[in-house]
Specification:
single chain, about 425 residues, mainly beta, 4-stranded antiparallel beta sheet, 30 strands
């Protein structure tokens, strides 16, 4: 006791007990309900759809048929189930995104389906803003040019042809797998679905991530994507051109031959250039560092993460997200898993490090509940100054949820 009091007197930082190794508290956003089509939540994508400056979320429930939008209730209700609506019922949904396709300032949803459905769907938002949570006010339509064309896996909204409307970058897998774009015919023609076209950009085996981001800081955004299978495996980038064909041919940046899962992009080494972190199946994590003096199309440096001492406590590598999770100097890598069976955990984080000799230790986030987790969003949901982790889980039907980041340290009393 005297030792503890002396620490308090001289003003040391006190580590809050048990939090380093205890799991983070899970708060459900949208619970599973198989009878309502909510089974096997697959993906979380964000946008502020009601202009309250809070991130809302859309999710496709792959093993059911619900496409769900959940509206952020704000700080007072953030730890309860969020107000939500089923905007459409389509099977085999693998992804869903927010976008305004017809320029009416109401945020629509586009869903991508694999399995036997193999189509893209538009879920048109209600005409009246007050009807956004009314399921009968939504209209779901299949996009004819995508019907039975591929197993659609991932979507990103992007004005490819620079005409002021929202096109959709698409990625698929298997036979006819490709990266391509869905051409918006213009705001006045968008609801006539026969006007939509799909144009391939590159062949693919199994697309996991598509991101639009300015890699080199020149004011022009590139498309970065990951392909996890066969001869196409690796991480790629395409330049956005000023005229047709609008996108350059893809350049493979690295990790050829690796089974690349979800990726994230950020400046990892502090040189002012964007780098890439990747989950590499079955159990690795890796980084691509942008060349310092050469254009981004030149060879990127590949590094694997430092060995993780307690890696055997967690499932297989599925997704990553870069952020500062512990409030201390330096970046961390948040990770989610698949095959987190039995006592294995499915969400954790570890310090960014590429030292091949010095091992690091991961911090458990989820505990053993859940088996197959998905992509990650890091954001301060409870407005307490640290990054929380939002994701979903498909096998144990944990639904859509977020983990509350506990305070790791606090200043000693003065």
């Amino acid at each position: 006791m005297k030792a503890i009091l002396s620490l308090l007197i001289i003003g040391y930082v006190i580590v809050v007990p048990t939090q380093q190794h205890s799991v983070w508290k899970r708060h459900t956003i949208d619970p599973a309900a198989p009878g309502e089509g909510k089974k096997g939540a697959d993906g979380v994508r964000l946008a502020d759809v009601n202009r309250d400056r809070l991130p809302d979320v859309v999710t496709g429930w792959e093993n059911g048929d619900a496409i769900r939008v959940c509206l952020n209730p704000g700080k007072d209700g953030i730890k309860e189930n969020w107000p939500a609506v089923t905007v459409g019922r389509v099977k085999d949904a693998e992804d869903a995104i927010f976008t305004d396709l017809d320029g009416d300032l109401r945020i629509d949803v586009v869903s991508a389906c694999e399995g036997k459905t193999q189509s893209l769907f538009i879920h048109w938002a209600p005409e009246k803003r007050e009807d956004y949570l009314n399921p009968s006010a939504w209209e779901t339509v299949e996009i004819p040019c995508t019907a039975k064309k591929a197993r659609w896996m991932f979507l990103t909204t992007f004005d490819v042809d620079r005409d002021g409307d929202a096109d959709v970058i698409t990625g698929s897998k298997g036979e006819n797998g490709a990266v391509g774009w869905l051409v918006n015919p213009g705001h006045s023609k968008a609801r006539n679905l026969s006007n939509w076209q799909w144009k391939p950009l590159a062949s693919a085996a199994w697309i996991m991530t598509i991101r639009d981001i300015d890699l080199d800081g020149d004011g022009h955004r590139e498309i970065v994507y990951s392909d996890r299978k066969g001869a196409h495996s690796g991480i790629y980038a395409m330049s956005h051109l000023t005229e047709e064909p609008w996108m350059s041919k893809p350049t493979r940046l690295g990790f050829a031959g690796k089974e690349v899962m979800f990726i994230d992009v950020a400046d990892l080494n502090g040189d002012g250039k964007k780098d890439i972190a990747a989950a590499l199946r079955p159990e690795e994590f890796g980084y691509l560092f942008q060349p310092k003096e050469r254009p981004w199309r030149s060879a990127w440096e590949e590094k694997l993460s430092s060995p993780i001492l307690n890696r055997s406590e967690f499932g297989g590598s599925k997704a990553v997200r870069i952020g500062n999770l512990d409030g201390k100097p330096g970046l961390e890598i948040a990770a989610t898993c698949e095959h987190a069976n039995g006592k294995l955990s499915g969400a954790f984080y570890f310090p960014f490090s590429i030292d091949p000799v010095k091992a690091i230790e991961a911090t458990n986030i989820s505990g053993s509940e859940g088996v197959k987790f998905d992509r990650i969003e890091l954001l301060d949901l409870d407005s307490d100054g640290d990054l929380d982790l939002m994701t979903c889980e498909e096998r144990d039907n944990l639904g859509v949820f977020w983990y509350e980041n506990p305070a790791i340290t606090q200043p000693a009393p003065q």
